[in-house]
């Protein structure tokens, strides 16, 4: 670890984390207090020390806002202390969501690249396709997801594919837009150079446009993978999927299992962070292999 | 084209004109240019910006199309000449691909033109040696200085043995010390390879030092105002720039520029 890593990078992040946790605790006390007072009155606990009262507000089984330690212990329990095949295991649900995320992301990236190649090379597609692509993203995914799932279920396609399709729908867009920009990024002088060699369109594409677009591809893939995860979770919500983080979120809100709800949220964000980090690492490795200047 | 250029003519232009249609009306980038470049010539094009020197080079390279007159390159139309890979082009910027090492950059035209791996290897070695960059083949462009990058781009233009080298202000972005050094090296390279070189510049000493023929151009419309055959010997140490003969040619270039109103407030 470099000497300045601690003060330059870790300290600021940890500080903000501590502030958030502190605010969260205070908020939890205030939000859970009315219900706790109600409980206390029924249990005939007339007076008690404020410390005891606060402790009770932070240990309700179904709090309005669960305390951080309740969420942490729930996440820990459901991640490490359960069999991964168990219906209560967060690993199990995360795995279900992850598989449709990755499938949808893969389709979306391939589709986005194909669309970009078409747009860059065919003038008619540039004019006709681009407005539709942009329009596609203005339709709320929450409106489309149930339709996709219901329609596909009607033709007996259920499970992973409908969810992956929703991820595809969200993830092809950043890739298509980023790759159009990337494939058009070579400078005039570099294109002129290819012309002086009498290079074919295919040679210009593979030797110039593709390598020039790689940094753009990875930047858009980072956005796309996060969008894919959102798509997979949204896809799990409307139709009562049997498993997945979306299912956990839905259960949590149906049965007021706020601790479970927050645990599922944490699982989703850990998953998102991990996926974005993996894409970022891949980007770094490829950049190094392509002679990138070390930062 | 029904024109029969004289023997040994590499570039032959007759009444060449090029007019760009812009929103502000037509711009006459080139007008009535007559020029003969013989095999083995080192021809410099000099003039202020807007005189059409770069445009003329781009017409030779078939990167622009003339709108009037006739031009042949190696006895062909520029398009045929480009398609038969008759020339190597060196741009103002090195235009090296940053994801390729220096030797891979030199290999680029060779890959495109379908040379075998063994042939590529030996040509990379040979051209790196020509521009004094042996040992730098595995470096990436960013690891080299500006002057070295431009030398690498010259090596790339030499790699496929075109007899004609078109250079568009290749040293314009470099400082004068590096530039002197590269000019000296370029003359040696020209003597060794016996190429025909068309060289665009806006430096009078550079044009006089390098050339066997200096084409003075002026703007609005872009045209040739003087063609000077150099009387300097083939062997040219840097000190030749202090000789009366050198200064006399430089003076004539200056007069040509003045005659084309190149020194007036624009």
Automatic annotation (TrEMBL), chain A:
GO biological process: transmembrane transport
SUPFAM superfamilies: MetI-like
Secretion signal span: none
Keyword list, A-Z: Cell membrane, Membrane, Transmembrane, Transmembrane helix, Transport
Topology class, membrane: Multi-pass membrane protein
UniProt domain ABC transmembrane type-1: residue ranges: 94-283
Subcellular compartments: Cell membrane
Gene3D superfamilies per the UniProt record, alphabetical: MetI-like (1.10.3720.10)
GO cellular component terms, A-Z: plasma membrane
Domain of life of the source: Bacteria
Record-annotated membrane-spanning stretches: 12-31, 92-120, 132-154, 261-283
Stored InterPro entries: MetI-like (IPR000515), MetI-like_sf (IPR035906)
Pfam families: BPD_transp_1
Similarity section: Belongs to the binding-protein-dependent transport system permease family.
Listed name of the protein: NitT/TauT family transport system permease protein
UniProt organism field: Xaviernesmea oryzae
Classification of source organism: Bacteria, Pseudomonadati, Pseudomonadota, Alphaproteobacteria, Hyphomicrobiales
From TrEMBL, chain B:
Gene Ontology molecular function, alphabetical: ATP binding; ATP hydrolysis activity
Keywords annotated in UniProt: ATP-binding, Nucleotide-binding, Transport
InterPro entries in the cross-refs: AAA+_ATPase (IPR003593), ABC_transporter-like_ATP-bd (IPR003439), ABC_transporter-like_CS (IPR017871), ABC_transporter_ATP-bind (IPR050166), P-loop_NTPase (IPR027417)
Domain of life assignment: Bacteria
Domain ABC transporter residue range list: 13-244
Annotated PROSITE patterns: ABC_TRANSPORTER_1 (PS00211), ABC_TRANSPORTER_2 (PS50893)
UniProt record similarity statement: Belongs to the ABC transporter superfamily.
Full protein name: NitT/TauT family transport system ATP-binding protein
Native species: Xaviernesmea oryzae
């Amino acid at each position: 670890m470099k000497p300045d890593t601690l003060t330059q990078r870790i300290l600021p992040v940890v500080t903000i984390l501590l502030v958030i946790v502190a605010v969260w605790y205070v908020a939890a006390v205030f939000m859970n207090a009315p219900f706790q007072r109600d409980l206390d009155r029924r249990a005939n606990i007339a007076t008690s020390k404020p410390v005891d009262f606060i402790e009770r507000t932070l240990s309700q089984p179904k709090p309005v806002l669960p305390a951080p330690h309740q969420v942490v212990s729930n996440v820990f329990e459901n991640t490490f202390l359960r069999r991964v095949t168990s219906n209560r295991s967060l690993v199990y649900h995360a795995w279900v969501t992850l598989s449709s995320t990755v499938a949808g992301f893969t389709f979306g990236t391939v589709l986005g690249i194909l669309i970009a190649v078409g747009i860059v090379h065919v003038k008619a597609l540039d004019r006709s396709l681009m407005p539709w692509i942009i329009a596609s993203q203005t339709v709320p995914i929450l409106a489309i997801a149930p339709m996709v799932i219901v329609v596909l279920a009607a033709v007996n396609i259920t499970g992973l594919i409908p969810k992956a399709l929703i991820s595809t729908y969200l993830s092809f867009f950043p890739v298509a837009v980023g790759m159009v920009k990337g494939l058009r990024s070579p400078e005039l002088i570099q294109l002129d150079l290819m012309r002086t060699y009498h290079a074919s369109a295919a040679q210009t594409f593979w030797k110039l446009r593709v390598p020039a677009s790689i940094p753009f591809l990875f930047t858009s893939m980072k956005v796309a993978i996060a969008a894919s995860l959102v798509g997979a979770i949204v896809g799990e919500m409307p139709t009562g999927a049997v498993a997945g983080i979306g299912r956990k979120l839905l259960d949590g809100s149906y049965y007021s299992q706020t601790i479970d709800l927050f645990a599922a949220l944490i699982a989703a964000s850990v998953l998102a962070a991990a996926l974005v980090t993996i894409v970022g690492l891949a980007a770094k490795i490829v950049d190094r292999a392509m002679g990138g200047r070390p930062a | 084209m029904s024109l029969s250029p004289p023997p040994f003519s590499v570039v032959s232009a007759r009444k060449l004109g090029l007019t760009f249609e812009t929103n502000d009306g037509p711009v006459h980038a080139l007008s009535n240019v007559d020029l003969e470049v013989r095999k083995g010539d080192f021809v410099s094009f000099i003039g202020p910006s807007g005189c059409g020197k770069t445009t003329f080079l781009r017409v030779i390279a078939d990167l622009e199309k003339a709108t009037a007159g006739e031009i042949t390159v190696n006895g062909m139309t520029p398009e045929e000449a480009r398609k038969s890979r008759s020339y190597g082009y060196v741009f103002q910027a090195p235009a090296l691909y940053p994801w390729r090492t220096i030797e891979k950059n030199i290999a680029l035209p060779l890959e495109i033109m379908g040379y075998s791996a063994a042939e590529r290897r030996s040509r990379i070695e040979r051209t790196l040696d020509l521009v004094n960059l042996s040992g730098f083949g595995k470096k990436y462009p960013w690891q080299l200085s500006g002057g070295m990058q431009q030398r690498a781009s010259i090596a790339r233009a030499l790699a496929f043995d075109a007899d004609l080298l078109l250079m568009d202000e290749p040293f314009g972005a470099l400082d004068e010390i590096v530039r002197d050094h590269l000019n000296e090296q370029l003359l040696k390279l020209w003597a060794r390879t016996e190429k025909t070189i068309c060289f665009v510049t806006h430096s009078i000493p550079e044009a006089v030092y390098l050339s066997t023929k200096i084409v003075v151009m002026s703007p609005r419309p872009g045209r040739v105002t003087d063609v000077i055959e150099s009387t300097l010997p083939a062997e040219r140490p840097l000190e030749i720039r202090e000789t009366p003969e050198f200064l006399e040619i430089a003076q004539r270039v200056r007069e040509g520029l003045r005659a084309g109103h190149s020194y007036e407030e624009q």
